[in-house]
Amino acid sequence: MNIILAAVISLDGKITRHNETGAISWNSIEDKKHFARLIAKSDAIIMGRKTYEAARKIIVLSPRRLRIVLTRAPEKYKKEAVSRELEFSKESPRQIIRRLQKMGRRKILIVGGGEIYALFLREGLVSRIELTIEPKIFGTGGNFLAPLQMKKEFRLVSARRLNRRGTLLLTYDVISTT
Ligand SMILES: NC(=O)c1ccc[n+]([C@@H]2O[C@H](COP(=O)([O-])OP(=O)(O)OC[C@H]3O[C@@H](n4cnc5c(N)ncnc54)[C@H](OP(=O)(O)O)[C@@H]3O)[C@@H](O)[C@H]2O)c1
């Protein structure tokens, strides 16, 4: 199973700028294209409820990929669910991955935000990180990872410069998880 965590961050490790939501107002066109390719290759996407709320208007549902939104109150979103395309769940990360595996979904993309990234990383459920770093500093905003204690080590698979300004795409495999 291929479980990829994808994020775009500023140089100071923020996934959002100040009190805004989302990253589309500040990430590069090259990162947008990279993210669109990752989505196209996935057959399941996992996100937190806050990320879903922020992206709701631009999410394009498809029967080719199941989107699972984690929330502790899935009943509130019952009307928004679309069979085989959009679900709301309070299952644990491990339960979700096991269920996806049973359904034959093999290419899973974890798209955040910070709470969900930290949760899946801590549980040892991420095999690869695709981290885009935009050469910007915000000072305030949402952190890449919510504070959950863990010890993880990674091996760099590739480092690509995506544009002249120096947006970097770093790909890391997880080599140890405790
Ligand atoms: N730059 C990037 O790459 C990037 C990527 C993704 C998101 N973002 C941005 O980051 C912001 C959101 O990040 P965030 O960290 O604040 O929130 P988040 O991770 O998107 O969502 C947090 C929510 O997930 C649910 N949740 C968390 N743990 C859970 C668990 N164990 N079981 C069930 N549900 C659980 C809760 O929903 P309930 O409160 O409903 O229970 C919680 O409020 C948004 O502005 C988004 O646009 C940026």
Explained architecture:
With 178 residues, this protein is α/β, with parallel strands linked by helices. It has a single domain, classed as Dihydrofolate Reductase, subunit A (3-Layer(aba) Sandwich), CATH 3.40.430.10. It is built from 4 helices and 8 strands; from the N terminus they run βαβαββαβαβββ. It has helices at residues 29-41, 49-55, 93-102, 114-122, and strands at residues 2-10, 44-48, 66-70, 86-89, 107-110, 128-134, 152-161, 168-177. An 8-stranded mixed beta sheet has the order 4-3-2-5-1-6-8-7, with helices on both faces. The chain is globular, with a radius of gyration of 16 Å. The two termini are 19 Å apart. NADP nicotinamide-adenine-dinucleotide phosphate (NAP) binds at residues 7-8, 15-16, 21-23, 48-51, 54, 70-73, 90, 111-116, 119, 142, 146.
CATH architecture title: 3-Layer(aba) Sandwich
Largest sheet: 8 strands, mixed
Number of domains: 1
Tally of helical runs: 4
What portion of residues belong to β-strands? 25-35%
Question: Are there runs of 5+ residues with pLDDT below 50, and where?
Answer: none
Domain Bacterial bifunctional deaminase-reductase C-terminal: 3-163
Pfam family, one: RibD_C
Protein name: Bacterial bifunctional deaminase-reductase C-terminal domain-containing protein
GO molecular function: 5-amino-6-(5-phosphoribosylamino)uracil reductase activity
